[in-house]
Amino acid sequence: MRRRRPIPSQGIDRDVSATHAGAAPGRCSMLRVAICGTFAASLEPRVRARLATPCEITLADEKSVVSRMPDVDVLVTMAFTRDMANAAKRLRLIQVPGAGLDRIDRFAVPPGTWLANVYGHETGIAEYVLGAMLTLTRDLVRLDAALRRGTWESQWAVGGEPPAPFPELAGKTLGILGYGRIGQCLAPRARAFDMTVLAIRRDVSQADAHATVRGPEALDDVLAQSDGLAITLPLTNDTRGLLGKRELSSMKRTAVLVNVARAEVVDEDALYAALAARTIAAAALDVWYRYPTSAGATLPARRPFHELPNVLMTPHISGWTEGMMSARARVIAENIERAARGEPPLNLIPPSG
């Protein structure tokens, strides 16, 4: 395999030509693939290793890729804009390297171009949700920090009162908002902890062995019953701001919220206020209202969640696992091969409109 690396023009922009044995590099018929953005670029070595079809692979950022679009057959990207669409001349496939489509302008997808996404993050995120709930209900971060100072905040301390016993997950109720792949992966794991699982999704036509599944009209009831709440639904016009002051106020004061979907499903001001006032006990937040756009420090929200001791903050890594990387690279490579053969991709997204 031959790699060509000219001096980058900006950001991560570079070329990587991948060929299989016996293929002639530089042929005009070679499939041209653009991998756009930092996250997509992290998958490039694994995708390239799985490709048998001769490809010329370009790594670019979202701005510089526009000038390359006239020659691109497959675009691997978390974002697709009208500028990209207007510049495309031969685009066969837009491959999203994640599940979410909230940065894809689906109305800009050129006619005849396939759009596909990819999953593989379900197990890692399900494990994160339960781990976060245990971390918060057992107050592990604070206890770790105290013991590093030599302070025993436990029944083993000499001369002090023991702390109140910690709650167990067993016997508690987990609410899951959005019962798709992540929710269905989470439910049996929660059941293994002897939790009762209540889930919300649009389609309630099929019974589920691990959860009581109800429609969106049951949201208030599920919120009121939940000791833990996992947000796993996509960001759409209907779900943006789904949880606001009224919804958060209806939850138990002992409830723990875990958001692994998109931050904007929960109103930022309402969530901060609920956590600051202990309207709910705690939250684990893995998705945010602001993301880095350049090197250097970037606080992830307007409100100072970082000042609240009852918030577990992680930088959108709940699904960042070895299993996810392998699963996504496998599907992306397969879809590139399918595009080369003129076959529809796996996980094809129907056209909008």
What does this structure look like?
The chain is α/β, with parallel strands linked by helices. It has two domains: 126 residues, Rossmann fold; 192 residues, Rossmann fold. The chain contains ten helices and 13 strands. The strands form two sheets. The chain has a seven-stranded parallel beta sheet, sandwiched between helices. Strand 7, helix 6 and strand 8 form a beta-alpha-beta unit. Helix 2 crosses helix 10 and helix 4 crosses helix 6. The chain is elongated, with a radius of gyration of 23 Å. The two termini are 42 Å apart. The N terminus is likely disordered.
Relevant terms:
353 residues, alpha/beta, Rossmann fold, seven-stranded parallel β-sheet, six-stranded mixed β-sheet, 16% strand, disordered N terminus
Q: What would you call the structural class?
A: alpha/beta
Helix content: 25-40%
Largest sheet: 7 strands, parallel
Tell me how many strands there are: 13
Number of helical stretches of at least 4 residues: 10
CATH 4th-level superfamily of the largest domain: NAD(P)-binding Rossmann-like Domain
Strand order of the largest sheet: 9-8-7-10-11-12-13
Q: Number of folding domains?
A: 2
Shape annotation = elongated
Kindly, what is the distance between the CA atoms of the first and last residues, rounded to a whole number of angstroms?
42 Å
Q: What's the mean pLDDT score?
A: 92
Task: Provide the succession of SSEs.
Answer: EEHHEEHEEHHEHEEHEHEHEEH
Proportion in β-strands: 15-25%
Using the coordinates shown, work out and report the CATH topology of the largest domain: Rossmann fold
- Rg is 23 Å
